Amino acid sequence: MSTGMSQEPQLILVDGSSYLFRAFHALPPLITSRGQHTGAVKGVISMIRNLVRTYPESRIAIVFDAKGETFRNEMFAAYKATRPPMPNELRTQIEPIHAIIAAMGLPLLVIEGVEADDVIGTLATQASAAGITTLISTGDKDLAQLVNDDITLLNTMTNELLDTPGVEKKFGLPPERIVEYLALTGDKVDNIPGIPGVGPKTAVKWLQEHGDLQTLVDNAAMVPGKIGEKLRDNLESLWLSYRLATIKRDVILDVEINDLVHRQEDVDSLHALFTQLEFRSWIKETESKGATPPAPAATAADTPGAGVAQGVDTPEEQLPEGTQVEVVLDEAALAACIEQLRTARTFAICVETDGGQYMEASIVGIGVSVRAGTASYIPLAHDSLDFPAQLDRQYVISQLRPLLEDAKSHKVTHDSKLLAHVLQNYDVKLAGCRFDTQSASYVLNSVAIDHELVNAAQYYLHLPSQRLDEVLGKGRNRLSYSQLDLETARQYAGRRPDLVLRLHDFFIAELNRTGELAGLYRHYEFPLTAVLQRMEREGIQVDAEALGRQSQSIGQRLQEVEREAFRLAGEEFNLGSPKQLQAIFYDKLQLPVLKKTPTGQPSTAEPVLQELALDFELPRLIMDHRALSKLKSTYTDKLPLDINPRTGRIHSSFQQAVAATGRLSSIDPNLQNIPIRTAEGRKVRQAFVAAPGYKLLAADYSQVELRIMAHLSQDAGLLQAFSSAEDVHRATASEVFSTPLAEVTAEQRRRAKAINFGLIYGMSAFGLARQLGIDRTGAQHYVDLYFQKYPGVLKYMEQTQAQADELGYVETIFGRRLYLPDIHAGNGMLRKAAQRTAINAPMQGSAADIIKQAMIDIDHWLRAGSGIDARMVLQVHDELVFEVREEDVAILTDGVRFRMTTAAALDVPLVVDVGVGNNWDEAH
User: Fold this and answer.
1) Which residues pair with 363 in a beta bridge?
2) pLDDT of residue 27
3) CB-based contact 589:570 (threshold 8 Å)
4) At 528, which helix (H) or strand (E)?
5) Could you give the residue ranges of the DSSP H alpha helices within 234-266?
6) Could you report how far apart the first and last alpha carbons of the chain are, in Å?
7) Quick one: CA dihedral 906, 911, 917, 921, positive or negative?
8) Range of the domain at 582
9) What is the spatial distance between Cα 305 and Cα 317, in angstroms, rounded to a whole number?
10) Which residue, of 504, 604, 790, 867, is most buried by count of CB atoms within 10 Å of its CB?
11) Do 810 and 847 fall into the same domain?
């Protein structure tokens, strides 16, 4: 450990998030005359300025955590869940810090999906590989794992410098053992489990005695005492802790080391920022550098952006901090607000709820905006406000009802489907909703963001704002929306309709500029939101008793599988424990090791089990056990709990703005992944039933993606096979295996089907070999024969990949753009995955567009006086499910088939299979 460097580092990476929290908690609070907190701003910027002075020849970059969850939350849902929400007085200081850093001309990095540590780890590793000496300025002990001959840590507050000997002296372990140390001790702040009761001394002792974590685990049986028992009891979670504590060093970044250069300092911007924050000594410093003081600011009533710092990267008129939010608390103010809405050309509306499922959600507050920079917030059910301090909810809704149900008024919102559901809970039928910013964001670029309002505003308009989970917090400390104090709710909810209005204006111009995307939005995505809302509202009836009986049956079957597995293993063990499976498979039974985990252990992952199951009975039983367990926990146990007690039906949510290709996805519960290839899976579908006097009708496109491939590729062989109504798999088998059509065997057809579907999903010869159970040479031979017989398909694939490589996206028949962020990735695995996606995305996306058009057409037909007692209740990719009165089955069948087969004009016919039954399985 030392306190100085022998030479100036070439690169300095600042852990801005570490700076932020340390400055906030360690330094006394500062508040401006207008009540703005600035202590953390002063502390963070002071430390950065000190670094710039101390290391004038070094390049300095500042890295902050992005908003939202990271890959670690996917790995472990409780990661950081015990952290209290960021105090509002700290949250409001983040943006000024970012603005000052930008004005100083220093590189600022905020990367979504990872933490600042991971970005720093990646850049430092790249620098080390290039022989660049790097200093990481942080107070976070976790970063000690990065230290090597080229990378050193500096704690700016204590001036403590840690090189490799310094890490060993401080922790008692070299840098390469720090992750293992953290895995053992855990981290209460980040909620990393570790081993209960193991502190720094025990962790160091164990690692010094055993050399590394794997050896410790291998020798766990020899660790004495109760602490040894805790180690053995928590071995499975230990590797989770290891992964959570490991800093990523391969984050895909838009910048490289050479991009981290300093720009010219913007003294005018700094002067404006320091003036707003009342940093008097720094104001004088910028004036001495020639800063021009800004003109006197207009009042907040005159200027939408008043009170907003000047000279930052985002234009003043767009900053959400400039939003002037009025709180509506009495009848007179409500009447004035409604009159404003009534006379406005367009107004934005957002409702804030208690967070319940859409069928039961209660409105806590309503935000509206008629002009960018202004908004009104109407609190309806905040715990901190009693009547008449806030208006009665029913009274407000009754006053708003005529406007909300007026089809002539021009309303815009973000997620119009949810808005319609919540209002319908109060018997308000939303009409006149003319634009949905969520749908527009999704059409413009489906993969850029998750299309939440604040993310869309940040991505398209560079307007930062708070996410709801940042306002409410997470885990046990999470608040309900009604528990928010009025000022916090006003700041959060008041800005949302303002953001919607700004996005509305931006998206209209952007969609019109792109031409085809405007048509896709107007004719497909936006009209579909209302169709989905009606479908979700209808829901589908489920037989809870049948599911209960099936759960019991699966439970008995699981016990049988367990007993048989114990017999084959010669001992009892936990079938769900990878560690115990490893011991049984590889140590005891000596099964072949086909693949290893990142930590070097023999893998028991699903693909490995599938391969082992071809030759060994125990892996097959483990797969059966996993499948049955998932079916029981996900469906037969859980679906009865999802039945709405008021309607007696299940109401899933069909998400438009999730899948990159345009497909819909089903959540809460997911009804699109119920297995249909097994008898047990089909029994789950049997529990989805029609009401008395009704039937379920299922209409399913036949081989739609292969038909789209024929249309797009214009391959003569495929066009002929579909146009002549041949069995395309049999026709392919005849071509590939040079066998007369009438003599094609069932096995040849199976192989041809695997080739047909495999190739449109970008499957390699290796993947085909695994699927067919043949060697790679034989699979490649089949692929070569296929392309000889269908040269148009190969040509199309090559052209599509070339377009993806050149433009970064591919398109569906209808002009939907499917962006491929990894098409030029340096990581070969990511790049190849993007290339496979490029082949399939136009087909899957076109299929999604076709069924959306069919849904819109059918919904319009059913609602336009058809006289048919029927309703759409489910969509599962290429399949639509309807509930129809028995006497209307025939006319519905004809009408649905006609509208599905004419939803698109392809060069091959669209074919729809229709089935009818008392339950979904019978109808499918």
Assistant:
1) 353
2) 65
3) no
4) helix 526-538
5) 235-245
6) 70
7) negative
8) 541-650
9) 5
10) 790
11) no
Instruction: Report how many helices (DSSP H) and strands (DSSP E) the chain contains, helices first.
Output: 38, 23
Record the tokens describing residue 517, joined without a space: 């995307």
Same domain, yes or no: 72 and 55 = yes
- According to DSSP, residue 145 is labeled G
Q: Out of 514, 539, 564, pick the residue that ends a domain.
A: 539
Which of 93, 84, 83 shows the shortest CA–CA distance to 27? 93
3-state secondary structure of 253: coil
Q: Cα separation of 174 and 164, whole Å?
A: 7
pLDDT at 578 (0 to 100):
78
The C-alpha torsion from 263 through 267 and 269 to 275, rounded to 10°, is 140
Beta-bridge partner residues of 63: 15, 109
Question: Residues 919, 690: contact at Cβ < 8 Å?
Answer: yes
Amino acid sitting at position 621? L
Q: Do residue 745 and residue 847 come from a single domain?
A: no
Distance, CA of 214 to CA of 839 (rounded, Å): 42
Q: Could you tell me if 842 and 811 are in contact, meaning their C-beta atoms sit under 8 angstroms apart?
A: yes
CA distance 770 to 762: 14
C-alpha–C-alpha distance, residues 881 and 668, integer Å: 18
Number of residues in the chain: 924
CA angle 800, 804, 807 (to 5 degrees): 125
Judgement on whether residues 553 and 504 belong to the same structural domain of the protein? no
Q: How many CB atoms lie within 10 A of CB 9?
A: 23
pLDDT tens per residue across span 836-873: 889 889 999 999 999 999 999 999 999 987 789 999 99
At 564-620, the pLDDT tens digits run: 999 999 999 988 787 888 899 999 999 998 887 766 788 887 778 888 888 899 999
Cα distances (Å, whole numbers) of residue 76 to 72, 578, 634, 658: 6, 17, 19, 22
848 phi/psi in degrees, rounded to 5: -65, -45
Q: Are 595 and 608 in contact (CB under 8 A)?
A: yes
Residue 701 forms beta bridges with which residues?
A: 912
375: closest CA among 398, 344, 399? Answer: 344
Same structural domain for residues 340 and 474?
Answer: yes
Say whether pLDDT at 313 is over 50: no
Whose tokens are 């939350």? That residue is 73
Please report the pLDDT score of residue 74 as a whole number: 73
Structure tokens at 245: 């504590």
- Determine whether 847 is exposed, middle or buried from the number of CB atoms within 10 Å of its CB (0-12, 13-18, 19+): buried
CB atoms within 10 A of CB 277: 23
Residue 3 lies inside a defined structural domain of this protein: no
Residue 360: half-sphere exposure toward Cβ, Cα within 13 Å:
11
- Indicate the pLDDT class of residue 386, thresholds 50, 70 and 90: low
Domain boundary among 496, 516, 539: 539
